[in-house]
Design a protein that fits this description.
Elements: E1 3-7, H1 13-18, E2 24-29, H2 32-42, E3 50-55, H3 56-63, H4 73-83, H5 86-91, H6 97-116, H7 137-159, H8 170-173, E4 182-186, H9 193-204, E5 208-214, E6 220-221, E7 226-227, H10 232-238, E8 245-251, H11 254-265, E9 274-277, E10 295-296, E11 300-302, H12 307-323, E12 330-332, H13 333-340, H14 343-349, H15 354-366, E13 371-373, H16 378-381, H17 389-405, H18 411-416, H19 424-427, H20 430-435, H21 438-454, H22 461-465, H23 469-485, E14 488-490, E15 501-504, E16 516-519, H24 539-545, H25 550-567, E17 570-576, H26 587-596, E18 605-609, H27 615-626, H28 654-658, E19 663-666, H29 668-676, H30 678-686, H31 702-719, E20 722-724, H32 737-748, H33 761-790, E21 795-799, H34 806-809, E22 812-819, E23 822-828, E24 834-838, E25 841-848, H35 854-866, E26 875-882, E27 887-890, H36 895-915, H37 923-926, H38 930-933
Parallel strand pairs: 1-5, 2-3, 2-4, 4-5, 8-17, 8-18, 9-15, 9-16, 10-15, 16-17, 19-23, 25-26
Antiparallel strand pairs: 6-7, 11-14, 12-13, 20-21, 21-24, 22-23, 24-25, 26-27
Helix pairs in contact: 4-6, 4-7, 12-23, 13-15, 15-17, 21-23, 29-30, 31-32, 32-33
Length: 949
């Protein structure tokens, strides 16, 4: 039986392990990082003993020698994909190679787990008949399918001359190279059945084994090699820990977390050994905000973060989008905007023209276009006077590359591209080429990828991926990306700047020690992590079978989390609470808070604080930045201590803002914004700084759908515009469903609509379902609604035209007011969908697919009739027609309502002239664009006379 040693949390586990070395010692750590740290620390005291520093995974590779080369990573997945029968693919919904990646990883993870616990996979077939293991019907079917796939996988792998670690047998493959050695296993929380067997085999071979555990001896069963729950109370009673203080910082969102960390780190000095714990750091936006003086990300970097990998990823996504588009000829504009957000992509394809290319795409997005075609026919169809020369240059280059890649038919052709169309020298940065081994790693992976063909794993891409060249190109790119994704490269020269923190995570920090730690994202689902979705067996079934469960993983995470807190003098834990997204602080945090709140608590000081972003704090920070004893020029920062509300007001300069003629011309939607938020009205409408459309979804937006409806109505109403003696005189074709369908179908087939309407299920939904509703609506309008409206009277239909008429373009003066001896006018204009005029009454009809507002109809009444005094003795009736619901009723607008609305506009304009462009007093209106208005800093307490600044 192994001997054991316990180490307190006030000691360094690596130093304690090194103290156990002899002449022939193997030190086994849970991670390569801790093994490497121990080896470097031992160098100064090395007395030429035979010492081996290894991780548990490396130890297994040393002791277990399979009879044939092992298949790994992408080669495993490829062979698994080849083993699937048509029945398997239909059963598991695997339609292409991309679908096997996630499913295949789960498949191998499951059988790896079985192998790790020495469970015979064939025993799964008898679980249903065991009497103690309840399986649902779907599980029985899945097990039958999966065992069949495994059997074919075994046969194929053996035929190819390989093996897999899930087939390894201890009886035949275990080879122990040591006799008389001392093996020290350093603080591993969980030992699998395979690992326990290896330890017993090492002892039987004449070696001694020492198990080193950090924590109370009661928290580990040394006989069973199994950890028990760590009781923090027991640790605190022993006083065997280094922790002095734990600060829990709860913010409102991740952005506040980063800002608080930056504020905190600027006051730190170099010296103490610090670590920032964040497993997702390198993939997050804030990694660009933290420089090397604060955080050293280390010398190792993922190849997947290089431009070469990201470019291939972009190309794959574009080829998949192309495959699903109309005639396989379109690429979403959103894809291109996303690509150009990467400066490396922008420089590679656009050079100095990058801003112009981006602006061209945003211009098209604002016009509701979703796609561009590979042949660039779009620019022959669409002309609005905009110069698209920069965009065309970029598209010619990039789309040309896409077309080349879309014709690939073999692994060799794809590899050869890196010497022609995609030369590696242009894909890697100068630093990557000269100061890292990235080129070597890329060529190694390319050689490994090319070997898929030479060793016979792929003989015919068409057989695997489909007959079309596009399908084959996508499949080959998937394979290459899988091969590159797991590679890492190292920088040959570490940063010369001394950093305050080194980057780590819970996995890598096992057995490491720091003076101070900062933890990001201590939220439930991240730390501790969420359980994974069920794959074949649920947690109860996995436990009965003897597999590791989520409960084991959660205990593992809990131990190593608290271990690092207990060995660190200072810890700063960041979490955030977002109720609407169900985001809460993690249970490790709440457990620590609960324990520290008990009476008689004797552990490290635990505090919880919640930093607030407020105007007062900004003011204080500005005072600090100005230097001690210096007077801060408040106005230069837009903040006035005596009148803090002024911060949220843009001053009004009437001459500049309203022009020399002092006339303000506006439409309904602009006036609506003026009433809701003058601040936003000034920015968006008065100055025309509209928000760029950067998220273009392949869906039928309300705006585009409304455009289709209005175009269709304009087309049909245009056929019958003019005077009619009665509704019975209307064109009979408007009651013919086939005719209406033909007109709608023709409209939708307009070439430009191919670039605006989504080319996915939304397109089918529009044609097959919504189209019928639209036609029903048209029939209802002409058959029921219009006759009921005009009765037997003669009438004139005046539908909306594509452009405003000369009369509609003329602004109508609505009101006038005086300010500082000058007269200011508010003028309005608008274009209504339909007017119907009879001898006794005029009708204004506004078609809506969503909510309609009475105020908009008031604007139309003023523009067309009331301000022109054009009614005479006629009455006026305004309607909102909900065309899809086939409902309409008069709004019954009164003179009092019109005057009330006019007075609101007068008062709003007067407030702007006297006070400037400020926020709305209504809370709901202030929620619009808070990042732009900074209304998130607005607080009632701010205006209190007693507010402390």
């Amino acid at each position: 039986m192994p001997s054991y040693k316990t180490v307190g949390f006030d000691q360094d586990i690596i130093d304690e392990a090194l103290a156990e070395t002899g002449l022939q010692t193997v030190l086994v750590f849970p991670t390569k990082r801790s093994a490497g740290t121990a080896e470097r620390r031992n160098y100064p005291d090395w007395q030429f003993e035979e010492l081996i520093f290894t991780s548990m995974d490396e130890l297994k590779e040393t002791l277990i020698l399979p009879p044939a080369p092992l298949l790994q990573e992408d080669k495993r997945l490829l062979c698994l994909y080849r083993c699937l029968t048509p029945e398997n693919r239909e059963f598991f919904h695997i339609n292409e190679y991309a679908d096997i990646i996630s499913w295949g990883q789960q498949f191998f993870r499951f059988f790896d787990d079985l192998a790790e616990e020495l469970i015979d996979p064939l025993s799964l077939g008898g679980l249903a008949d065991s009497g103690s293991f309840y399986l649902q019907n779907w599980q029985e079917l899945h097990i039958e399918q999966i065992l069949g796939i495994r059997e074919r996988y075994v046969k194929l792998v053996q035929e190819l001359g390989f093996t897999d670690k899930i087939f390894v047998s201890l009886e035949t493959d275990l080879k122990i190279p040591w006799r008389g050695y001392k093996l020290v296993f350093v603080n591993q929380y969980y030992y699998s059945a395979l690992e326990r067997e290896l330890i017993h085999a090492l002892e039987k071979s004449g070696n001694s084994v020492l198990i080193v555990w950090q924590g109370p001896s009661a928290s580990f069963d040394f006989e069973a090699l199994k950890a028990r729950d760590l009781r923090l109370e027991d640790v605190f009673e022993t006083d065997e820990f280094r922790a002095e203080a734990v600060d829990i910082i709860e913010t409102d969102n991740p952005d506040q977390m980063i800002m608080d960390f930056l504020s905190y780190s600027k006051n730190l000095e170099s010296g103490p050994n610090r670590a920032l714990l964040d497993a997702s750091y390198t993939g997050k936006y804030y990694s660009k905000l933290i420089n090397h003086k604060v955080l050293n990300p280390g010398t190792k970097q993922k190849l997947s973060e290089s431009f070469a990998f990201q470019l291939l990823l972009n190309i794959r996504e574009d080829l998949k989008s192309q495959r699903g588009s109309f005639k396989q000829a379109f690429i979403p504009i959103q894809n291109l905007l996303d690509h150009l957000a990467d400066q490396r992509f922008a420089r590679y394809f656009c050079g100095e023209a990058h801003p112009a290319v981006r602006d061209d795409l945003l211009h098209l997005a604002a016009k509701d276009f979703i796609y561009l075609d590979l042949e660039l026919n779009f620019f022959d169809l669409y002309t609005d006077g905009h110069d698209f020369s920069a965009l065309k240059g970029f598209l010619c280059s990039y789309f040309g590359l896409l077309k080349t890649l879309g014709k690939l038919g073999s692994i060799e052709e794809l590899c050869d591209l890196f010497d022609s169309k995609l030369p590696l020298a242009s894909l890697l940065s100068e630093d990557e080429k000269h100061y890292s081994d990235a080129p070597v790693k890329v060529y190694e992976r390319l050689a490994n990828f090319r070997s898929l063909s030479t060793i016979g794993l792929i003989s015919d891409p068409g057989e695997l991926f489909g007959a079309s060249s596009l399908e084959q190109a996508i499949g080959l790119l998937e394979l290459l990306l899988q091969s590159l994704q797991t590679a890492n490269f190292r920088w040959q020269m570490a940063s010369r700047e001394e950093s305050l923190f080194e980057l780590s995570n819970l996995l890598d920090s096992r057995n490491l020690s720091f003076d101070e730690t900062v933890w990001f994202h201590c939220n439930e689902g991240m730390l501790p992590s969420n359980p994974e979705p069920v794959w074949l067996l649920n947690e109860t079934q996995r436990k009965l079978l003897g597999l590791k469960t989520y409960e084991d993983i959660r205990r593992w995470e809990r131990y190593y989390f608290y271990r690092l807190l207990l060995v660190s003098k200072q810890s700063r834990l960041y979490c955030y609470r977002i109720p609407e997204q169900d985001v809460e602080p993690g249970s490790f945090i709440t457990e620590l808070q609960e324990i520290s709140s008990r009476s008689g608590y004797i552990g490290p000081a635990v505090s919880t604080s919640k930093p607030k972003a407020s105007l007062q704090l900004i003011y204080r920070n500005l005072q600090q930045l100005s230097g001690a004893g210096q007077t801060l020029d408040q106005n230069s920062f837009g903040f006035n201590k005596k009148n803090p509300e002024h911060f949220f007001v843009i001053p009004c300069d009437p001459e500049t803002d309203f022009g020399a003629d002092h006339n303000l011309n506006s439409s309904y939607y602009k006036l609506k914004q003026m009433l809701e938020s003058p601040y936003l009205w000034y920015i968006r409408f008065l100055k025309g700084l509209s928000e760029p459309v950067t998220q273009i979804r392949e869906t039928l937006t309300r705006k585009v759908f409304g455009s289709v409806i209005h175009s269709y109505l304009s087309l049909l109403l245009g056929m019958v515009s003019g005077s009619h003696k009665s509704s019975a005189e209307l064109d009979k074709r408007l009651q013919d469903r086939d005719f209406l369908w033909l007109q709608l179908s023709t409209l939708l087939e307009d070439p430009l609509y191919r670039y605006k309407l989504p080319q996915n299920y939304n397109w089918e939904f529009l044609r097959d379902i919504i189209a019928d509703c639209i036609i029903d609506t048209i029939q209802w309008f002409f058959r029921d609604y219009l006759p009921a409206l005009v009765q037997d009277q003669a009438f004139t239909l005046i539908p909306e035209t594509d452009t405003m008429t000369e009369e509609e373009q003329k602004p109508r003066k609505l009101l006038e007011l005086d300010y500082q001896g000058q007269s200011y006018s508010l003028c309005i204009r608008g274009k209504v969908d339909l007017r119907i005029e009879t001898a006794a009454e005029n009708f204004i009809i506004d078609f809506k697919t969503g909510e309609g507002k009475k105020e908009q109809l008031i604007i139309y009444e003023w523009v067309y009739y009331l301000l022109l005094d054009a009614l005479g003795d006629k009455s006026l009736s305004s309607h909102i027609c909900q065309i899809l619901e086939q409902e309409s009723e008069p709004m019954n607008i009164t003179d009092k309502q019109r005057e009330t609305y006019k007075e609101k506009l007068r008062q709003a304009l007067s407030n702007i002239l006297h006070q400037g462009f400020g926020l709305s007093p209504r809370t709901t209106d202030r929620n619009q664009y808070p990042a732009l208005t900074r209304a998130d800093l607005y607080s009632i307490k701010l205006w209190s006379k007693d507010a402390e600044l």
